[in-house]
């Protein structure tokens, strides 16, 4: 008697021979995006200020048969960003994808409670530099390589806060709103060279336990996988005609029905 066996699930290899730089790759959406790019065949450059975290992540990707390079970087430094791009090209020969994932709310990261009026200059500068200036630096640094290749994709992570604003996150909302505008301009700049730019704006995501308390009309926060799967879709040839647009993954929070 023959025993039936379940077929091995086929996993797409949409990024075979592609090279992806992922910022914020030490944790959260950046780490998961890097892992998923690698799982689908990409050679991944992991960028984060947390050297130990990306070293561990790169080692795990390599042990699974993938190719990964960990480069500890402060994305607030253009010199450091330029070195990442140069080393990526030196190591892998090209750059096909830039995923600007690094960011965070400066009130939380800089331990700066209170409202906008209570923020320190350090927190204000961190919020703008990490959430907005860093993605500008990286986009500027990769463009010559992508133009030479006549192709590439830039994915920027914004936020629903950049669409609707928020009294408790003035600097964060301003920076993320700027990211949406940056994406549109990059799309127009890159279009003659086959370069696309797309923006993803999540609402609450369960990368931190506290996110479960933020309301959406759908009654829950997004899982990290719901965001990163869409990031990978936009990075792939499946989305070849999508450029310049902002995509909300917010359970209708931007519609205002969560109040």
Features:
single chain, 259 residues, Rossmann fold, 42% helix
What does this structure look like?
- The chain has helices at 28-39, 51-63, 78-92, 106-109, 121-149, 161-164, 170-190, 224-235, and strands spanning 19-23, 43-48, 67-72, 97-100, 152-157, 195-202, 246-249.
- It is an alpha/beta fold and 259 residues long.
- The chain has a single domain (19-255), classed as Rossmann fold, CATH 3.40.50.720.
- The protein has a seven-stranded parallel sheet, with helices on both faces.
- Helix 1 (28-39) crosses helix 8, helix 3 packs parallel to helix 5 (121-149) and helix 5 (121-149) packs parallel to helix 7.
- The longest helix has 29 residues, at 121-149.
Percentage of residues assigned to helices: 40-55%
Fold-level CATH name: Rossmann fold
Which percent band covers the strand fraction?
15-25%
Helix-strand pattern, N to C?
Answer: EHEHEHEHHEHHEHE
Overall morphology: globular
Secondary-structure map:
Blueprint: E1 19-23, H1 28-39, E2 43-48, H2 51-63, E3 67-72, H3 78-92, E4 97-100, H4 106-109, H5 121-149, E5 152-157, H6 161-164, H7 170-190, E6 195-202, H8 224-235, E7 246-249
Parallel strand pairs: 1-2, 1-4, 2-3, 4-5, 5-6, 6-7
Helix pairs in contact: 1-8, 3-5, 5-7
């Amino acid at each position: 008697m023959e025993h039936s066996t379940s077929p091995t699930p086929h996993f797409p290899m949409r990024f075979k021979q592609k090279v992806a730089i992922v910022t914020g790759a030490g944790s959260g959406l950046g780490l998961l995006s890097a892992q998923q790019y690698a799982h689908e065949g990409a050679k991944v450059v992991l960028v984060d200020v947390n050297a130990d975290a990306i070293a561990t992540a790169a080692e795990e990707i390599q042990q699974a048969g993938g190719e990964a390079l960990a480069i500890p970087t402060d994305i607030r430094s253009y010199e450091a960003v330029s070195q990442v791009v140069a080393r990526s090209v030196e190591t892998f020969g090209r750059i096909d994808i830039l995923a600007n994932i690094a960011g965070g709310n400066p009130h939380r990261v800089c331990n700066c409670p209170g409202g906008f009026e209570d923020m320190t200059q350090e927190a204000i500068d961190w919020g703008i530099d990490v959430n907005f200036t860093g993605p500008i630096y990286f986009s500027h640094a990769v463009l010559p390589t992508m133009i030479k290749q006549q192709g590439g994709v830039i994915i920027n992570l914004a936020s629903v806060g950049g669409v609707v604003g928020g009294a408790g996150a003035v600097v964060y909302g301003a920076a993320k709103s700027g990211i949406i505008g940056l994406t549109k301009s990059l799309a127009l700049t890159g279009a003659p060279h086959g370069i696309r730019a797309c923006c993803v704006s999540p609402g609450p995501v369960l990368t931190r336990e506290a996110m479960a308390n933020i309301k959406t009309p759908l009654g829950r926060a997004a899982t990290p996988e719901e965001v990163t799967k869409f990031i990978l879709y936009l990075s792939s040839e499946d989305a070849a005609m999508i450029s310049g647009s902002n995509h909300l993954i917010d359970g209708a929070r931007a519609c205002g029905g969560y109040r």
